[in-house]
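Recap from last week: sequence in, structure out.
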Amino acid sequence: MDLRRKDRREARLKQEIEKYRASNPKITEQFADLKRKLHTLSAQEWDSIPEIGDYSLRNKKKRFESFVPVPDTLLEKARQEQEHVTALDPRSRAAGGTETPWAQTPVTDLTAVGEGRGTVLSLKLDRLSDSVSGLTVVDPKGYLTDLKSMKITSDAEISDIKKARLLLKSVTQTNPKHPPGWIAAARLEEVAGKIQAARQLIRKGCEECPKNEDVWIEACRLASPDEAKAVIARGVKSIPNSVKLWMQAAKLEHGDLNKSRVLRKGLEHIPDSVRLWKAVVELANEEDARLLLHRAVECCPLHVELWLALARLETYDNAKKVLNRARERLPKEPAIWITAAKLEEANGNTSMVGKIIERGIRALQREGVVIDREAWMKEAEAAERAGSVATCQAIIHNTIGIGVEEEDRKRTWVADAEECKKRGSIETARAIYAHALTVFLTKKSIWLKAAQLEKSHGTRESLDALLVKAVQYNPKAEVLWLMGAKEKWLAGDVPGARAILQEAYASIPNSEEIWLAAFKLEFENHEPERARMLLAKARERGGTERVWMKSAIVERELGNTAEERRLLDEGLQRFPSFFKLWLMLGQLEERFDHLDRAREAYESGLKHCPNCIPLWLSLAILEEKTKGLSKARAVLTVARKKNPQTPELWLAAIRAECRHGQRKEADNLMSKALQECPKSGILWAAKIEMSPRNERKRTSADALKNCDKDPHVIAAVAKLFWQDGKAEKARTWLNKAVTLAPDIGDFWALYYKLELQYGSEETKREVLERCVAAEPKHGEKWQVVAKALENSHQPTEAILKKVAVAIGREEIAAENNGKH
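Predicted structure tokens:
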């Protein structure tokens, strides 16, 4: 039945829809026949159809223009957007320039912002409020700070003030015994500029909450200067045991006598207040202070600062009595024992200092006090700063080992000493090392660290004494003997240095280092015959290649060519793989223009040392002098094949091409070199110097990207700044270079040359002193000058000046070549 009814219903609905569509056809159906005929229209007929106009009633109505006033908010926004502020707002200046007044912030709708701020404030207060037994208790900490820093700059803020006033009125009415509500209400009126209203409110607060010291202090702050004393007097009358009120009352007084009188009155009510006792003692003279402190320690016997202050003011005997009484009252207080030790040290009884600290630590441990090693070390540093060195040493000696495992002692103590050294606590570090050396007598590393400390912060006498003890306990430690001898030599005591080296040789008879140190001492002090004898003995005892090399150097300086050649030949027979002997032989032949023999020496050396770069470079330079560029190219090509990724060989090849004017070939070699050695600083530095002037900045940027910490690149960039006349930047970059590589003398020479041109006498002297302290040994130009025969015994200062002159000559020659 349902299905039949459904079918009939759907058929009837379909007939009704068809009947409706037949009587009310759509517009598209009405024009369907006409649209079908449009395909017969030509293009001209289509274009001639007129455009339909706008005939709607909406556009036929007459339009009236209406004018309304521009809102104030829009004008304000436009003014602020167009305004250029060149000075701080007066309110901002009053706040120290650290606060931005609200009116300088672009505001779109002042009324909406005001309503929003009121809502935010009410939400904050609602969140802070809490309902307790029908009363509203407000914690004022949050909004009191806001009120104190608020600046009223607009009507919206005034509206906020009104809302806050209503809220705080509700607080004070619902809970009049709640002091923060009164304080907040008074501060709100103060912010609003109504100081009289604020005073009235806080006065009511004092009446409602007479036992709250914060309300009285706020009332005192808001009161006029004439009334403040009366207000605080009523306060201390209501709360005579309030330390804060008595301190505030003392602040209001003028003159130390009046302040002291008020504080003493307070002490009558609160005799156990340490704060009041400290304040009254500070105002008193020494005699009165001593009497006051006697009374103070009776009233506050458990406060150690008062006992210590009294001990400092008493005589030696009375101070000891005071500290003994303090120990009885405060048996767990370490500061009393430390003060007792300082007292003995100040009176010259240094022998008692260690005993007092030791006895104090035992007594504290009996009382159950945990000895905190770090805290005691801080006390030792404080004692050092106070000038009590013996106390510092005693504390370290008795506490440094507490809580440290036996196997960790050496590492921990050395780390502690280094940390103290960094903080400037030199005596503490010295004491740690002294204690460590009593435990580790034979540890060479600790002796060395202690010696370095004495060298940098002690005297020559203390260093000599330490090194004498060091070699007594470590007679086989070469480095300690050599250090002692060097310090004697630097102090000008050559016989003393000789004596130390003789003792060292007696302890370590076969030590080559001691033989060579003795040779150097005699050689540098112009005693060549003694030096020759020492080296001859060393050779007899089977010295190493270094002994033969030093022997040849001595003969070269003395001009004994035949003996020099003999020693080199003998040395090469014994040590054919020691490249320096081959180099010296080749240089010997070159000095006398025996170029074929020199070539043979270099080639023989390369057979034994194919990976020795200095030999390859010497041979290439010799071939360039004798047979020209092509032969030098061949030598350097072979060298690069046998020693790939060696920037020095690439650089030598590039410079050889440049010397002969082959700039294009040099550029090609530089590109290949940087492909093979992209992180080579010397290659990038050479590329910066070779680049045209307009490309040097880009090249230096690429160089720094690839090797930003390389001193050669940094020095090359410094030269660029120097050429541009930017002396300060050049100085900064050269300082970086000598800091990164203090052993390279070329950078020191550049730095010194810069100071000669732009610096003062002080900066020149500083660079000179730093260079002498660094003792540079390497550098392309430095080694050429330092190893020349005429400069063999020259000090570092003279070498530096000569290298600076040589660099200047090279730069002038390069400029002349560039012009030609």
